[in-house]
Amino acid sequence: MTKRSIRANRIWSVVLTIVSLAYMYPVFMILMNSLKIETAITTNSAFKLPNSDTFAGVDNFVNAISSKGFLQSFGYSAFITVSSVLLILLCTSMLAWYITRVKNFFTKSIYYLCIFSMVVPFQMVMFTLVSTADSLGLTNPWNICVIYLGFGAGLAVFMFAGFMKSVPLEIEEAAMIDGCNPLQTYFKIIFPMLRPTMISVGILEAMWVWNDFLLPYLVLDRTKYMTIPMLIQYFRGSYGRVEMGPMMASIMLTIFPIVIVYLFSQKYIIKGVTAGAVKG
Questions:
Q1: Spatial separation of the C-alpha atoms in residues 270 and 201, rounded to whole Å
Q2: Theoretical Cys-Cys bridge with 197: which of 121, 213, 223, 272, CB 3.0 to 4.6 Å?
Q3: How far is CA 279 from CA 101, 194, 199, 229, 274, in A?
Q4: Is 217 exposed, middle or buried (0-12, 13-18, 19+ CB in 10 A)?
Q5: How many angstroms from the chain centroid is the CA of residue 70?
Q6: Domains detected in the chain
Q7: CA–CA separation, 40 vs 118, rounded Å?
Q8: Measured between alpha carbons, how far is 105 from 113 in angstroms, rounded to an integer?
Q9: Distance of alpha carbon 236 from its chain centroid, rounded?
Q10: What is the pLDDT, as a whole number, of residue 62?
Q11: Pick from 183, 28, 14: nearest CA to 93
């Protein structure tokens, strides 16, 4: 490596470090203010580190958890995320397997439609979506996973199909010779081989569904069901006053689960993406 390339790498490292810190600064501000008393957040002390006079300890977190609807909303978000991710992983992996093994005009059309759905802005379909979801009875946490399946299928099919193209067809032929039907071949042979891509797709989809605000806001009945992002939007104290301390704490409680999952699983994301990076 030449001196010029070493210098360029150092410059890029400094630039990317600054960009990373810029992205982390809002999260740091939320964490810092979640540990302060109310008056310190609403005054000029909002940008200062907590001290003995402004430090609130874990009171804001306790108030956030004990607030009306927090645990219920947390449960709704958890259920929607888990059910949506499981449905996406199962359906899209089977579809990708079918697309890569049955090559005709129909399967190619389905594949390109899935890819095309990745570039269609959500704002173009959200009004039609609300009407369709209402007519089909998808306006509750138990059925909204079907909508997430439609919007999450594009990325998932793309990654699964990329991985499936690298799997030798002879493995499946050997399983069929041994007496396996298509379902047995998928669950006994293909499914275990998809583990790296399954984990990476699952994490990416979980981060999206867990943090999503607009789709549940448009589809769900807000008088009955509220996810965590929706609850934070409507976080109110007595007389409609916004309680900034518990609100900041609730945001941190929302961030923690998905960040922890990502930190422990990021190596699988890289492995899954690399596994699908093959030429079709």
A1: 11
A2: 272
A3: 15, 17, 21, 39, 12
A4: middle
A5: 20
A6: 3-61 (no CATH), 65-275 (1.10.3720.10)
A7: 43
A8: 12
A9: 26
A10: 86
A11: 183
* Token duo for residue 242: 């916004």
* Distance, CA of 215 to CA of 123 (rounded, Å): 10
The pTM (predicted TM-score) of the whole model is 0.83
Query: In this structure, which amino acid lies at residue 192?
Result: P
Indicate the residue type of 275. A
Each residue's pLDDT, cut to its tens digit, for the chain (280 residues) gives 677 788 888 899 999 999 989 988 888 888 888 888 877 877 777 778 888 778 887 888 888 888 778 888 889 999 999 999 999 999 999 999 999 888 889 999 999 988 888 888 888 888 888 888 888 888 889 999 999 998 888 889 998 988 888 888 888 888 888 888 888 888 888 888 888 888 888 888 998 999 888 899 889 888 888 888 888 877 655 445 677 788 888 888 888 888 887 777 777 666 655 555 444 4
Cα dist from 115 to 72, 138, 153, 228, whole Å: 35, 24, 9, 30
Residue type for 164, please? M
**Which alpha helices (DSSP H) does the chain contain, by range?**
3-33, 38-41, 59-66, 70-101, 105-117, 122-136, 145-164, 169-177, 182-185, 191-193, 195-211, 214-219, 228-233, 244-275
